[in-house]
Amino acid sequence: MKAISKAIIKCINTVVVLESLSRPEDLFKFVERDEVGPFCGICRIFRHKSNSNVRNHVESKHFPFKFVYTCEVCGKQVKTKASLSTHKSEQHRNMAKIGERHR
């Protein structure tokens, strides 16, 4: 009976959490801090000195398909903000240089 109760509570908590995530910035709600620094408030295992890296962990490990990011250059869609940044730096790194030449 306890296992069923825990599963129901976990399911209810998940629904509440998902409803509270309407924007990617909301992922910072799950970045917690203690005297050592920022950590993941969901699994409480992942730590990093940067809040943004903990936020990226939360998105990629706990909510991988919650948001879709679209590259404004080619239209490719990716599942995390970090993936979009990587895609742009690898696929479109010369775009800024080309734009600067035409000014």
Describe the structure.
The chain is mainly alpha-helical and 103 residues long. The chain is 47% helix and 10% strand. The protein is built from four helices and four strands, in the order H-E-E-H-E-E-H-H. The protein has a two-stranded antiparallel sheet. Strand 1 and strand 2 form a beta hairpin. The longest helix is centred in the N-terminal third of the chain and has 18 residues. It is elongated and about 40 Å long. The N and C termini lie far apart (69 Å). The N terminus and C terminus are likely disordered.
User: Are there runs of 5+ residues with pLDDT below 50, and where?
Assistant: 1-16, 98-103
Strand content: 5-15%
What is the molecular shape? Answer: elongated
Largest sheet composition: 2 strands, antiparallel
Return the string of H and E elements.
Answer: HEEHEEHH
Question: Alpha-carbon distance between the termini?
Answer: 69 Å
Q: Report the count of strand segments.
A: 4
The helix fraction, in percent, is 40-55%
| Radius of gyration, whole Å | 18 Å
Q: For the residues shown, what is the average pLDDT? A: 80
Strands in their spatial order, largest beta sheet: 1-2
Topology:
Elements: H1 2-19, E1 31-33, E2 38-40, H2 51-62, E3 69-70, E4 77-78, H3 81-91, H4 95-101
Quick gist of this model?
By secondary structure, the chain is mainly α. Helices cover about 45% and strands about 10% of the residues.
